[in-house]
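The material for today's practical consists of a large collection of protein records. Getting from the letters to the tokens is the skill we practise here. To make this concrete, we reproduce a full record directly below:
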Amino acid sequence: MWHRTDLISTLVIAALAFVTRFVGLTVPTASGTPIFDEKHYVPQAWDIAKAGIELNPGYGLVVHPPLAKEIISWGEMLFGYTPLGWRVMSALFGVGTVVMIMSLARRLSASWQVASFAGIIAVFDGVLLVTSKFGMLDIFLTFFIVVAAWALVRDHQQVHNRLHNAWKAGTLGDSVFGPRMGFRWWRFAAGVALGLALGVKWSGLYYIAFFGLASVFADLWLRRRFSIKRYITGTLLRDVPAALASIVALPVALYLWSWRNWFASETSVYRHAVADGTVSADSSFNILPDTLASFFYYHASVLEFHASLTTSGGHSHPWDSKPVEWLVAGRPILYFSNTDLECLNGATCRQMIYLFGTPIIWWLLIPVLLWSLWCVLLRKDRRFLPPLIGFAAGFLPWLAAYDRQMYFFYAAPLIPFVIVALALTLGQLAGRGRQVRWLIPARAPWGTIAAYGYLGAVIAMFVYFSPILYGYTIPESWYNSLMWLPNWR
């Protein structure tokens, strides 16, 4: 149940998230213009703000769905084509992501303390911070994915309670397939979130596949747990069709909805690809009506673009990183650089902003995942399953496409699930061990001291690395002291 302490802790941590994300939000620019990949998405969002559609005046292929750019455009409608305008929605969704991470941890642990652990770690993670401070796509994808995971956990718990109450009351019914579950609004909500994630980036497909399978297997487990005789057939007949509707068909429908302005406009990218001869006469797309043929040709072109960005094909980028490097935040990305500045009585200074994972969080990623597996497999602690599934959905598919050019911001949707697993682990640790008698102002077990000591270390390390997260002007010597590893440069 939700208590007053839940409300207070959530409000306090949400306020911290708001402050950390809005401080210096408008400062880093390239002479007042967008920086890094903002240069792609911010002008496209401005087109949407003005005309309702990405005008694409440079006639380059627009390679991501329109939803996130439409959300960015809401801020530009309010504050104009300014840094605040193109970043305010990212910052707000960044705050929302922190709150949803807390909500997921709270739902899994039934503990406001564990939720607070997750919220504090999320506030002071560098990746979640920096993705929230620029007009790019990944914070929107991350938000919708965490919402989907939270909604599916709520759905599973609700269905479990329904079956448990029916079992206690003797009303499970006589069917060998078990009872029908009724309409499942939380699973429907998860489908909405997954559809919105897909409308931000195609990598939302990975989560549709993993979360959909997880939902079905969770239903299978529940039917078996409550001694349904034909639980496999019952799941196939009574759960799978509804799951396909909510977690596959609904997201696809919402994805198509996100393209509504493309269909409505006469000047959209490839809108008349058939009529103007862009689609060859012998293409299989020609069996479709012209509009649909042009739509699918557009998608085929985007798919070809992404498939061609391979290392073996000669594509390279100075900040390219592979999934194995994400596991230790081994290769950050430079978002902003202003060097050879004069400061401090003639000393050489610089301003740098990296997409940089707070090391004390990211360097525990592998140990925490291994501990989560241990808890699930040997301790039968199913609370760790959703974080493991969420992480796997965002990590394993990239291993299959290992040759593709990749960047650290692809890992942004991974870290919320690592944070939840970390918070659950701290919750296990807190309260354990012998009392420390000399502790002032009150005694506490060693486990509690370790848990709160870790949170303090997270905050301290965030502050230590804040110059390269916010772009403070610092001397070269200070900057060099922050570059612990050669691969960070």
Notes: Residues 138-258 form one domain.
